[in-house]
Amino acid sequence: MKPSTLAVHAGAHIDADSAAVAPSIGLSTTFGHAADGTRGPAGFEYIREDNPNQRQLEAALRALEGGGAALAFASGMAAVTTLLDTIESPGEIVLPLDVYHGVRRYCREVMVGRGFVLRETDFADARGVAASIGASTRVVWCETPSNPQLVVADIAAIAQQTHGNGALLVVDNTFATPLLQNPLVLGADVVMHSTTKYLAGHSDALGGALVFARDDELAGGVRERRTLGGAIAAPFNTWLTLRGIRSLAPRMEFHCRNAAALADFLERQPAIAQVNYPGLASHPGHAIAARQMRAFGGMLSVRCRGGRDAALHIASRLRIFTNATSLGGVESLVEHRHSVESAGSSTPDDLLRVSVGVEHIDDLIADWQQALD
Ligand code: PLP
Question: What number does the ligand 1 atom closest to the CA of 78 have?
Answer without folding.
Answer: 16
